[in-house]
Specification:
Elements lengths: L2 H24 L6 H41 L2 H10 L2 H9 L6 H9 L7 E2 L32 H4 L2 E5 L4 E8 L18 E7 L2 E10 H6 L3 H23 L21 E6 L6 H9 L13 E6 H9 L1 E4 L6 E4 H7 L4 E4 L11 E7 L7 E14 L3 H5 L1 E10 L2 E2 L5 E7 L1
Parallel strand pairs: 2-12, 6-15, 7-10
Antiparallel strand pairs: 1-12, 3-4, 5-13, 7-11, 8-9, 11-15, 12-13, 12-14
Helix pairs in contact: 1-2, 2-3, 3-5
Length: 419
């Protein structure tokens, strides 16, 4: 096992240990000061470990892709050397001249099986660089890129899978055998089993920016900044579509149905009368612990709306019964019981009737239960012709291909506020 994969396993083990420790401390009725301080620190430590785990998984997937390429070419060191010579600017030049990439860029595309006239998605990772200005009277600092909502699809359990070309086929065993005792000489009956296959086809996601030629001269680094912007906008848009869907295409085949619109998904409701009650909120999440897909509250992977997060963190509870009341927020109460979540912007901001509060993944067997295939290349078009030429403009259009499907919907649920 390589070091990166070992790191993933260590972080997964640590995450399980932290959640178990949190659940154990939450079950103690009278905590001493040391235990209370430890419990208060648990959410932050769990969140930090989760971030490290996601980063390690990304690194492991990248190494897997690189090892596959190295195996195919037989020259891993040579592939890394080619990757070091690749420049996004050369793809931009090729797009401007309406030709395929050349040199190291063409070699790199060939190695990862991407057409020569397309841009590998992995090259769009945001980079922050200090820019300079040819006018000595103007000092230009580091370019401040636009801030997007934090991505959260992976947290709820969606697996992003790189696809080189074609249709992604996901087989699944949907029914099978049950074991039972048999006596001496007694035959075992044949089992009825069922296998289903989900096929996922690519759908196009695009973003476009138009800039004037004057601005490219006035603001050095503008076009590079807008290319970063397009890449980040695609990433955020895909993540948002996982939750809310995107029906903006003129044909149904181009639409994406997200968690919010998937029919048949388990939907838990919290009434307006109960949404401020700690026991009713906890009861709702406990109802998802079925002993099969979730063995405890620590098996729930929750992405909340901003509205639900504000509700939970600002509602003050008075606990204690006949003794002196202890005041804590509803959010603190839920965390003390073993729940953890992260908020995602642009899902919902309110908690009124019909609004969604959270999307939940049930962690046991969740790997592959929700798949977002991403076809490994993008199209970057730099258009300076026609009306753009007349106006002295440059149009940058970035498109890539992806989709989203639940292959086993029983591993997911959503929370909705109702009257």
């Amino acid at each position: 096992m390589n070091e990166t994969l070992q790191r993933v396993r260590e972080l997964e083990t640590r995450q399980s240990e932290l959640r178990q420790e949190s659940a154990t401390l939450s079950g103690i009725s009278e905590l001493n000061e040391e235990q209370r301080q430890r419990l208060d620190a648990m959410p932050g430590e769990i969140s930090d470990n989760e971030r490290q785990l996601r980063a390690a998984r990304f690194a492991a997937e990248a190494e897997d892709r690189e090892s596959i390429v190295a195996e195919d070419t037989g020259e891993g060191a040579e592939f890394r050397e080619i990757r070091g010579r690749v420049r996004v600017g050369e793809y931009v030049a090729a797009a401007m001249e309406q030709r395929a990439a050349q040199g190291a860029e063409l070699e790199y595309n060939s190695a990862i099986k991407v057409p020569g006239n397309e841009l590998p998605l992995e090259l769009l990772a945001p980079e922050h660089r200090t820019t300079t200005n040819t006018d000595s009277s103007v000092t230009q600092g580091t370019w401040l890129d636009r801030l997007f909502a934090d991505t959260a699809a992976m947290h709820v359990g969606v697996r992003f899978q790189s696809v080189p070309s074609g249709v992604l086929s996901v087989p699944q065993t949907t029914a099978g055998a049950s074991a039972a005792q048999r006596g001496r000489g007694e035959a075992v009956a044949d089992a009825a089993w069922t296998v289903g296959v989900t096929e996922i086809k690519p759908a196009r996601n695009s973003v476009r920016a138009v800039l004037s030629s004057e601005d490219t001269y006035r603001l050095p680094g503008l076009e590079a900044a807008l290319r970063r912007e397009l890449g980040m906008a695609l990433t955020e848009g895909v993540d948002r579509a996982v939750f809310l869907g995107d029906a903006g295409a003129n044909e149904d085949a181009g639409d994406v149905t997200g968690f919010k619109g998937i029919s048949g998904l388990t939907e838990k409701t919290l009434t307006q009368a109960n949404k401020l009650k700690a026991d009713k909120t906890l009861e709702l999440f406990l109802s998802l612990v079925d002993g099969v897909r979730a063995g405890g509250l620590d098996d729930l992977r929750i992405v909340s709306s901003v509205g639900a997060n504000v509700l939970w963190e600002s509602t003050i509870l008075a606990l204690g019964g006949d003794t002196a009341s202890v005041f804590k927020t509803l959010g603190k109460f839920l965390r003390d019981c073993g729940l953890n979540w992260r908020a995602r912007g642009e899902i919902e901001t309110a908690t009124s009737n019909g609004k969604f509060g959270a999307f939940i993944g049930l962690n046991r067997g969740i790997e592959g239960a929700a798949v977002a295939p991403v076809w490994a290349s993008a199209q970057l078009i730099r258009d300076v012709y026609g009306d753009h030429a007349k106006k002295g403009e440059v149009a940058l259009t970035l498109s890539h291909y992806w989709n989203f499907k639940l292959t086993r919907a029983t591993n997911f649920a959503r929370l909705k506020f109702v009257t």
